Amino acid sequence: MKDYLGYQGKICVVTGAASGMGKATCEMLLDLGAKVYAMDIAEITLPVEKCIKVNLGDKASVDEAFTQLPDHIDRFFGIAGVSGVKTDFETTVAINFVGHKYIIADYLTQRMGDGGSIALMGSLGGTGWLETREELSPLVEAQGYEATMKALDEMAARVAKKDYGKMAGLQGYFLSKRAMTWYVKKMTAFFADRGIRINIICPGSTQTQLTDQWASLLDAKAMQGQKEARYAQPSEMAGPIIFANSDMASYMSGQHIYIDYGQNAINEYTNPTREFKLVSL
Q1: Based on the structure, what is the number of domains in the chain?
Q2: What average pLDDT does range 170-182 have in this prediction?
Q3: What confidence tier does 1 reach under pLDDT thresholds 50, 70, 90?
Q4: Which residues span the domain enclosing 71?
Q5: Has residue 272 been placed in a domain?
Q6: pLDDT tens, 22-73?
């Protein structure tokens, strides 16, 4: 059978591999014949090439993790993330966005060549990135890890003055996913010149440990969105992100793709003038 997806023997790196969408992605990649390097802060129980413990919110941890990875990477899947329920605003953004930005800018630019591809796991919660780009600009445009963290520190100081209470981490989740979507747009031309694609998948409500945590803060109907929709299973997000990084999507780059059973489309149709609130400004 022809390998249309093109994963046979490819070196694939997956963050967030211990559970949920990341684990489901690793399982599919293994079935497709890829050489999988799995990264997570939690224990990974998969028969991959190597399991690597990493805290994406800690630069030194990321640096150490990359000493254990091959010099050449074919496909990168940035799936790891936290809900913001058990972490504060700054930690949430550091893990969800800054860590992945650092990997892309400082490592993948060196270890990925012509024909490589990057796919990130965003969120329906990142909707509104275009309308709030003024707020995101210092974080996205900062050059280097230290400058990005300085921008985040300043943003966190402004957030601390607002009355978010226990919802501050969740605000960090929304902002981090908006920033990630805009960062994909920013890097599209840069990578295109090098023959590398970059895309972001934006899931709707998916049954993972993150949704279990959000349930302690949010109304179930608000979480699930449209009345008729069900929660997706992690494998239903693994499939699209694997497609985005596959040979079958070889002419697709710079895209943010909603995988949400039509929830965003319905919102756009029923409320075309909706406004998106800023988090920190």
Answers
A1: 1
A2: 97
A3: confident
A4: 11-263
A5: no
A6: 999 999 999 999 999 999 999 999 999 999 999 999 999 999 999 999 999 9
Closest CA to 202 of 18, 21, 10: 21
Residue 209 lies in a domain: yes
Domain of 82: which CATH number? 3.40.50.720
For residue 95, tell me if it sits in a domain: yes
Tell me the C-alpha distance between 127 and 177, whole Å: 8
Is 6 part of a structural domain of the chain?
Answer: no
**What pTM was estimated for this model as a whole?**
0.93
| Residues 187, 198 contacting (CB under 8 angstroms) | yes
Q: What is the mean pLDDT of residues 264-271?
A: 94
DSSP, residue by residue, the chain: ---TT--TT-EEEEESTTSHHHHHHHHHHHHTT-EEEEEESS---S--SEEEE--TT-HHHHHHHHTTS-S--SEEEE-----SSSS-HHHHHIIIIIHHHHIIIIIIHHH--TT-EEEEE--GGGTTTTTTHHHHHHHHH--SHHHHHHHHHHHHHHHHTS--GGGHHHHHHHHHHHHHHHHHHHHHHHHHTTT-EEEEEEE-SB-SHHHHHHTTTS-HHHHH-STT--PBPTHHHHHHHHHHTSGGGTT--S-EEEESTTHHHHHHHH-TT-----S--
pLDDT of residue 230: 81
pLDDT for position 213: 60
pLDDT in tens, 196-226: 999 999 999 887 665 666 455 555 444 444 4
What is the spatial order of strands in the sheet that 35-40 belongs to? 50-53, 35-40, 11-15, 75-78, 117-121, 197-203, 256-259
Name, in order, each residue with C-beta under 8 angstroms of 163's C-beta and a sequence gap of 6 or more.
none
